[in-house]
Structure to design on (98 residues):
C-alpha cells in the first residue's frame, strides 16, 4: 500500500486553487485537470467542494519536474527544490491546520 500523498497538507489556502483556475493556468479543460488531480495526486477532494488543486504541484507537473513533485507529495516542504517552486508560484509556506 502506498503512502497517502501529502497534497495540500498542511492546508494552505494561498496554495489551493479551483479546477477552473488550474484549467486556466494549464490552458486545458476542466476534465483534463480533474484527471490530472486524480492521476498525479496534485489535488484532493474537499468536503462540500469539487477538487482543490495545489498551485505548486500543478507547476511542478507542468514543468515536468517529477523529482520535486515526488518530494512534495512525500511531505517535503523544506528542500530547496520544493521551496523554489513555492517561491515561483508566489505561495508562502503556511503552517495552517491539515
Amino acid at each position: 500500500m502506498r503512502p497517502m500523498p501529502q497534497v495540500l497538507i498542511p492546508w494552505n489556502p494561498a496554495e489551493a486553487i479551483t479546477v477552473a483556475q488550474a484549467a486556466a493556468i494549464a490552458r486545458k479543460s476542466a476534465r483534463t485537470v480533474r484527471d490530472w488531480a486524480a492521476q498525479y495526486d496534485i489535488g484532493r477532494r474537499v468536503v462540500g467542494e469539487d477538487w482543490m488543486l495545489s498551485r505548486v504541484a500543478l507547476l511542478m507537473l507542468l514543468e515536468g519536474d517529477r523529482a520535486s513533485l515526488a518530494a512534495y507529495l512525500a511531505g517535503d516542504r523544506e528542500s530547496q527544490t520544493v521551496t523554489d517552486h513555492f517561491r515561483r508560484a508566489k505561495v508562502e509556506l503556511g503552517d495552517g491546520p491539515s
Observations:
- Residues 16-88 form a domain with the Multidrug-efflux Transporter Regulator; Chain: A; Domain 2 fold (CATH 1.10.1660).
- The mean pLDDT is 92.
